[in-house]
Design a protein that fits this description.
By secondary structure, the chain is mainly α. Helix content is 57%, strand content 4%. The chain contains 14 helices and four strands. A four-stranded antiparallel sheet has the order 1-2-3-4. Strand 3 and strand 4 form a beta hairpin. The longest helix has 32 residues. The chain starts with a helix and ends with a helix.
Amino acid sequence: MATPDLQQLDVFVATLPERARSFAECGVAVPFTTPMLAAARLRRLPGKAPELVLPPLGGRGSYVLGWDSCLGLSPTLHDRALWPRLASLPVLTPATIRAAAREVAAQGLAGRAAQAAALAARQAQATLRAGLEARFAAATSPAEALAEALAETGPDGGPSTPVAARLDALSAFAEAATAQALAASEPTDRETARLVASAAQLALAAARASLAALRQAVEPLQATPSDPAAVARVVLLAARPDWLLDGWWRPAALARLAPGSLAALLREVLLALPVAPFEAEEWWSSAGGWDAILRGRARLAPRALRGGEARVEMVARLEAMRAVAA
């Protein structure tokens, strides 16, 4: 349901910027460390080569680039090593992108902090997967498939799972943005903060609703054997929170790294604000909330880069984000 803030934002612009139909059309957020690629999403549509989708300067539409074009942006060594892994992935999902990015970060190409975080995250996921295989082995035959599907959410989205950590980080970011909206003296800063906070709250509500549906589907599998259709449903539901939260690690990491610069960071966040496609309405209805987010973003017309920052500072900040959001 759209909040009062979103309803107010909705009246300013009559024309609605194009909203993606599916998550495949949106693409998956990629943790590049090249400044001009910082908000890039990777997609591979049927019959096409992998391509990167970047936000425009004025908040409407998008830029679509092939990797050959991105080479002119002087990608970092980390990004040059990451791209071949991404391009060869058989399936593009937040989970497969995250695994490829961790492999590159584990080589130290994004700095030592990101390397340590990637190694720790990889080990934690392996431990969780092994526990899930043991838990479901007696109840169902495809225990390995279930463990793979639930490696991010666990069987119930509990506090020790990776998805719970991402939800906590996004919740803290939404609270910080809400506080900034109340404290900001400039109208544009106020509206930007309100818009970003509202979008974060929409994503949180949708992800939590998806986790609730997943818990209901998993519960019967823990006690009795299940048919393949029930297992397939769990695999399907387990992927939804990851899609709904995809890309939100960026603003959460930014706010954590520089809490004193939140007003400026929110203007940067607005440019690459993750907007759920129409496909997500089948999972959880936003009652027009995402359409209002798009209208507000187009009206506020964010900029692409913070003009006062040099490239080396931007790269360092993006590498620090890799450590925070491994």
